Amino acid sequence: TCEEIADGAVLLRGFAKPIEDELIAAVREIVAQSPFRRMTTPGGYQMSVAMTNCGERGWITDQTGYRYDAIDPRSDAPWPAMPAVFRDLARRAAESGGYAGFAPDACLVNRYEPGTRLSLHQDKDELDLAAPIVSVSLGLSAIFLFGGLSRNDKPRRFRLTHGDVVVWGGPSRLAYHGVAPLADGEHALLGRKRVNLTFRKTR
Ligand code: MD3
Ligand code: FE
User: Fold this and answer.
1) What b/e sequence results for 31-44 when a residue is b if at least 16 CB atoms lie within 10 Å of its CB, and e otherwise?
2) Is 110 near ligand 1, meaning CB less than 6 Å away?
3) Which of 24, 55, 50 is nearest to 38 (CA)?
4) Can you give the pLDDT of all 203 residues of the chain as single tens digits?
5) What is the CATH number of the domain that holds 168?
6) How many domains does the chain have?
7) Which structural domain range is residue 98 located in?
8) How far is the CA of 177 from the centre of ligand 2 (A)?
9) How many CB atoms neighbour CB 58 within 10 A?
10) I need a surface site. Which of 38, 105, 155, 167 has the fewest CB within 10 A?
11) Is 167 touching ligand 1 by the criterion CB < 6 Å?
């Protein structure tokens, strides 16, 4: 099913489910090369969510700021290549959402454990803000908070579950969003965690 949840944002419930095993196997290979790590924000806070990346560039934050970089500062090597199964899923989802020809060059992989959260933020480090962001939820479900273009707009809440894919484009691309603290639970494939993939075109 395809549902427009906000202007320019399309929720594809269960879109990734048919390839769940391939996606999880690919995440494990990425993490073997570039492990999940908790990064530090420019304000000096350590994020509760652990992150890694694949693709030509990866999103990082440290004391000096946020940026996309071709090198994983932890391994001092390029990020793992984007698996074909990721690239194809992102392209198919974007097309279903009305964005044909989406060619992401970066995929940020977020790992949530019970109690971890992502506070309200905008994603605007990408140069091409006309391209959508495609997100894929795996494992435990989460309450996703979706606000407006101002931090003060009261966020709406959506439950995102294993296999759900959302295409965020148009006016929703610069909306504030976040994830409420993850409730504990056990997922058949991933155990006590949630993994979220976000596909981006950064340049
Ligand atoms: C709406 N990730 O990685 S995915 C992020 O569940 C991030 O890990 C969350 O926010 C997560 O930056 C939310 C949904 C999402 C991702 C990017 C967006 C929604 C978005 C960018 C613009 C608008
Ligand atoms: Fe975000």
Assistant:
1) beebebeebeeeee
2) yes
3) 50
4) 889 999 999 999 999 999 999 999 999 999 999 999 999 999 999 999 999 999 999 999 999 999 999 999 999 999 999 999 999 999 999 999 999 999 999 999 999 999 999 999 999 999 889 999 999 999 999 999 999 999 999 999 999 999 999 999 999 999 999 999 999 999 999 999 999 999 999 99
5) 2.60.120.590
6) 1
7) 2-200
8) 6
9) 26
10) 38
11) no
Give the pTM.
Answer: 0.98
In degrees and rounded to multiples of 5, residue 192 shows phi and psi of -90, 50
Q: Which ligand is nearest to the CA of 49?
A: 1
Q: What is the whole-number distance in angstroms between the Cα of residue 107 and the centre of ligand 2?
A: 12
Task: Check if the beta carbon of residue 26 is closer than 8 Å to that of residue 83.
Answer: yes
| 131 Cβ inside 6 Å of ligand 1 | no
**Rounded Cα–Cα distance for residues 20 and 26 (Å):** 10
103-133 as b/e, with b when 16 or more CB fall inside 10 Å? ebbbbbbbbbeeebbbeeeebeebeeeebbb
Q: Is ligand 1 within 6 A of the CB of residue 168?
A: yes
Contact yes or no for 149/185 (Cβ under 8 A) = no
Q: Give the closest ligand to the alpha carbon of residue 144.
A: 1
Conformation bin of residue 60: beta by default, left when phi > 0, alpha when psi is -120 to 50: beta
Question: For residue 42, which amino acid is it?
Answer: P
CA–CA distance, 183 with 69 (Å, rounded to integer): 32
